Amino acid sequence: MINPLWLKTFIALVEQKHFTRTAALLHMTQPGVSQHIRKLEDYYQATLINRNEKGFELTQEGEKVLRFAKELVVSEEQLKESLKEDNPYEGACRLSSPGALAMRLYPQLCVIQQQYPELLMQFEVAPNHRIVSELLSNTIDIGLITHQTDEPELIARPIDQEQLLLVVPARYREAGYSDLCLLGVIMHPDASHHISSVLRANYAQFQHLSEFPVKGAVNQINLILEPVAAGNGFTVLPESIVNAFPRQQDISILNMTTAVYETIYLTHKRHRPVASRYPFILNTLFPDQL
């Protein structure tokens, strides 16, 4: 690989048109300047300058190397400047969250991008375990997960919480534990954790989710309440998902003695600084939480 120092010496020599002046400018000796030019010529296997009694003239090969050298210097300066800049309103934004949280956050991210077109939202819906894996592999920069992680390479801290609601068909304005057992559960990707958390906090007789017959399973977050609305079973979901369901008249939310909340953890690499666009975005998503 070419030594950039040789190229910078070559540029200076062409601009100064004199070996002695070039040496003084670069705080080198004249033989040192000559050595850099010889090394360039050896590297490219070409004569770059023709010496004469007045100094030297560039060869055609020398002109090509000069153009390349100047472009390289400009590119290096641009890179240095871009590394200093950290504009909070531009750049790729690689984030991920589970599906229920995504339904709440992604529309807001779209609004942010509309306001700041230089921000490119690259948002992935994924389960918690995959988000952790992709953070570790640097596939994403920010994960918003609903389970604490013990990965030593990651920092996870609470940023928000949302109430979990137990949803039954509309005909059930009230329902006891035995009613729920008869009704059965509608499963979804987070159902085991959500349902167990709410039932354990509110029903002393609850031991395990396997006590309940499974009456259906859906992996699309916007469809989970359809079988509940049809009267096929009950489930537990975050409040924002329940509120977004269009047929509110077909479902009912049971009042719980103990409210249960799902914590959202802001997660990122411990030793990988985040760009300034992420605090800006997260402050917009979670005002007063950072």
Task: Describe the protein's architecture and organization.
- The chain has 290 residues and is α/β, with parallel strands linked by helices.
- It folds into 3 domains: 4-84, Winged helix-like DNA-binding domain superfamily/Winged helix DNA-binding domain (Arc Repressor Mutant, subunit A); 91-160 and 263-285, 3-Layer(aba) Sandwich (D-Maltodextrin-Binding Protein, domain 2), CATH 3.40.190; 162-261, D-Maltodextrin-Binding Protein, domain 2 (3-Layer(aba) Sandwich), CATH 3.40.190.10.
- It is 43% helix and 23% strand.
- The chain contains 11 helices and 11 strands.
- The strands form 3 sheets. Strands 3, 4, 5, 6, 9, 10 and 11 form a 7-stranded mixed beta sheet that branches. The chain has a two-stranded antiparallel ribbon with strand order 1-2. Strands 7-8 form a two-stranded parallel ribbon.
- α1 packs across α4.
- The longest helix is centred in the N-terminal third of the chain and has 25 residues, at 60-84.
- The chain is rod-shaped, with a radius of gyration of 32 Å.
Describe the secondary-structure layout:
Layout: H1 4-16, H2 19-26, H3 30-44, E1 49-52, E2 55-58, H4 60-84, E3 91-97, H5 99-115, E4 119-125, H6 128-136, E5 142-145, E6 154-169, H7 177-183, E7 185-187, H8 191-202, E8 214-217, H9 225-229, E9 235-238, H10 239-244, E10 251-253, E11 260-269, H11 277-285
Parallel strand pairs: 3-4, 3-5, 7-8
Antiparallel strand pairs: 1-2, 5-11, 6-9, 6-10, 6-11
Helix pairs in contact: 1-2, 1-3, 1-4, 2-3
Pfam family, one: HTH_1
InterPro entries: LysR_HTH_N (IPR000847), LysR_subst-bd (IPR005119), WH-like_DNA-bd_sf (IPR036388), WH_DNA-bd_sf (IPR036390)
Domain HTH lysR-type: 2-59
